[in-house]
Specification:
The structure holds 2 protein chains of 2 kinds.
Chain A lengths: L4 E2 L10 H7 L1 H4 L12 H20 L7 E4 L2 H16 L5 E5 L4 H12 L3 E5 L9 H7 L4 E7 L11 H10 L3 E5 L18 E5 L10 E5 L14 H4 L7 H12 L3 H21 L3 E3 L12 E6 L4 H10 L2 E2 L1 E2 L12 H5 L4 H5 L1 E5 L6 H20 L5
Parallel strand pairs in A: 1-11, 3-4, 3-5, 5-6, 6-7
Antiparallel strand pairs in A: 2-8, 7-8, 9-10, 10-13, 12-13
Helix pairs in contact in A: 1-9, 3-9, 4-5, 6-7, 10-14, 11-14
Chain B lengths: L6 H8 L12 E7 L4 E10 L4 E10 L2 H14 L4 H5 L3 H7 L8 H21 L11 H8 L3 E2 L4 E2 L6 E7 L2 E6 L8 H12 L7 E6 L3
Parallel strand pairs in B: 7-8
Antiparallel strand pairs in B: 1-2, 2-3, 4-5, 6-7
Helix pairs in contact in B: 1-2, 2-5, 4-5
Classes of the chains: A alpha/beta, B alpha+beta.
Chain lengths: 386, 212
């Protein structure tokens, strides 16, 4: 059996061994609860470790450490951003805008808020998945309290123009939430230049452990506490802090270097070129301009064949990828991201997502292209569509 | 926990039997559509003395379950008489494969439907029907309710792409509310003809595009 090639890094990434190493002491020795400075020594040490991790994560966004709240992950961060602001504005403003292609944790939070009496506008995207900042500006009313978009889409890698959207929101004093789970460490988000009010980030997408994330909350942002209990995390999120997780998250961010992004970007270009030139009838899904696309995302549709079969064949060849096909999903619905981009069902069913990280190697690209070509040809031979 | 398919499903998926197009087929049928994510086409070669299936092939656009059931039912139908082959149902296919995941059972249903429709088409074309009921406009609409509108993922009747048809001296006319130069027009036309033409008393099918 050949070595497995993992190209599902938009789902989760390999935890860096150095991250695991950094976390271990917080299970075995320094397991005390991170507590106030008037507590016992181990508690104070745990607090210091937690705050050090917080400073690293805040630092990458040019934010104050006190504005970063640790959560259990991107999903919780997104839930807190939407529900927390909605509840803070309840009775005053009742309208929020989310793009149609946001992650389910934003989409389903918005749908739930609708059931609670809030009004939600689901902003359209174009056929490459872009939100038009002027569209957003046109949708803002004096009842709008929040706009939520993704920095990079999880399926197509399309990068939104968050600077322009932020400007439109700021003019109308509307809060702006960015789900940056997939771009943290890959694409810089400087909160000094792009003044987003809320930013969700996640550890396991940047080679940290699962089960930890964070929400940046700009000082003075109106937001209601959502998970109740103790006074943890500046009284914004109750629950014993996941010190080991936060330390791992901090370590993962600290290990990141700009050349990682460049290496991933080079592989992206080679993979995309290989698939497009090597396999006839292949179309790119998402941003065509690679500078407006997540450096690790390649999403293509192979015409005339269905994605689940491609995924299973590639799995047999030791390659891990996923598809936007209905056959693959638990709901038996094609990808809502693809459908929002106005694609036919057939194009969504034939879509395959390859997502790269710094743990992929350039020599893997040839094998993936060659295996994909073999699989596509075999499936096209038995397809009734010509 | 591993891949939710039995080894037999995987074997048929990786190395499907009886695949491809059968040249000079005596009958054929297509079920499903790319819009649904699954489509299967079955071709039959039938020996007229004894009406035994001499050869059978299938083509599939679909997931592993679709490909595996196409493979197994063509194995099962080969060398059977038409009457025997009609007895093959989705349960037979499912049992032979050692069980499909519940959400994938519809793939087996689709492949069996294609086999049955192909047999039915053969019977229409070779005077084997027990009762030769004249084709009505209702029956045509019923058959068309299996043709999928690729824009919606639902059938052309329900989505009102086809609202009307006429029968005149063995000529069926089907009106499609779509412009003739639409990207899906040719596909839809071919699918409609394939559905209606085999009917025993239909000599020709005229598909008229009249949409904006």
């Amino acid at each position: 059996m050949q070595e497995r090639i993992y190209m599902d890094n938009s789902a989760t990434t390999r935890t860096d061994p150095a991250v695991v190493e950094a976390m271990i002491p917080y299970f075995t020795d320094q397991y005390a609860v991170a507590s106030s400075q008037f507590s016992h020594t181990p508690g104070i040490q745990a607090r210091e470790a937690l705050d050090q991790a917080r400073a690293i994560i805040a630092g990458t966004m040019h934010a104050d450490p006190e504005s970063v709240v640790f959560t259990s992950g991107g999903t919780e961060s997104n839930n807190l951003a939407l529900k927390g602001t909605a509840w803070a504005f309840r009775g005053k403003k009742d309208h929020l805008i989310v793009s149609k292609t946001v992650h389910n944790s934003v989409l389903h939070s918005a749908q739930w808020l609708e059931k609670q009496g809030f009004r939600v506008t689901y902003a359209d995207v174009d056929d490459q998945g872009f939100v038009d900042p002027d569209d957003i500006a046109g949708l803002l009313t004096d009842q709008t309290f929040l706009v939520s978009v993704q920095h990079a889409n999880h399926e197509t890698g399309t990068l939104q123009d968050i600077g322009a959207i932020s400007d439109r929101c700021r003019k109308k004093e509307v809060l702006f939430h960015v789900d940056a789970c997939r771009t943290l460490t890959m694409i810089e988000l400087d909160l000094g230049t792009i003044p987003a009010d809320l930013v969700s980030v996640s550890s396991h997408l940047v080679h940290g452990p699962k089960g930890v994330g964070a929400l940046y909350i700009r000082p003075d942002t109106k937001i209601q506490k959502w998970q109740h209990g103790g006074y943890h995390e500046f009284d914004r999120r109750a629950g014993t802090e996941n010190v080991a997780g936060a330390v791992g998250f901090g370590k993962a961010v600290e290990l990141t270097k700009p050349e990682h992004t460049e290496a991933v970007r080079d592989m992206q270009k080679d993979l995309l070129d290989g698939l497009m030139s090597g396999i006839e009838g292949t179309v790119l899904n998402g941003a065509a301009d690679l500078s407006r696309r997540h450096p690790g995302n390649v999403n293509v549709s192979f015409n005339r064949i269905e994605g689940e079969s491609v995924v299973l064949h590639l799995d047999m060849k030791g390659i891990s990828v996923i598809t936007g096909s209905a056959c693959f999903s638990r709901s038996l619905e094609p990808s809502y991201v693809m459908m929002a981009m106005g694609f036919t069902h057939e194009r969504a069913h034939g879509s395959i997502r390859f997502t790269l990280s710094r743990f992929n190697r350039p020599d893997e690209i040839d094998r993936v292209v060659e295996s994909s070509r073999e699989v596509v040809e075999a499936l096209r031979r038995i397809s009734p569509l010509k | 926990m591993s891949i939710p398919y039995t080894q037999k499903v995987l074997d048929h998926f990786m190395h499907p039997h009886n695949v491809g197009k059968l040249e000079n087929a005596d009958a054929q049928a297509t079920e499903g559509s790319p819009a649904c994510g699954d489509m299967v086409k079955v071709y039959l070669k039938v020996n007229p003395s004894g009406y035994r299936i001499e050869d059978i092939k299938f083509e599939s656009y679909g997931c592993a379950s679709n490909i595996a059931t196409g493979s197994i039912i063509t194995d099962l139908a080969k060398n059977k008489t038409l009457e025997e082959a009609k007895q093959i149902n989705w349960k037979t296919a499912n049992d032979e494969l050692g069980g499909l995941p519940p959400v994938k059972v519809h793939c087996a249903v689709l492949a069996v439907d294609a086999l049955r429709t192909a047999i039915e088409n053969y019977e229409h074309q070779h005077g084997l029907l027990k009762e030769q009921v004249p084709t009505t406009e209702d029956l045509i609409m019923k058959r068309l309710s299996r043709v999928i509108n690729p824009l919606a993922g639902l059938d052309v009747v329900r989505t009102k792409l086809v609202r009307e048809c006429k029968i005149n001296n063995g000529q069926a006319v089907v009106f499609v509310e779509m412009p003739e130069d639409h990207q899906f027009a040719v596909n839809i036309k071919n699918e409609i003809i394939e559905r209606i033409e085999p009917l025993w008393d239909i000599d020709g099918v005229n598909v008229i595009f009249r949409g904006e």
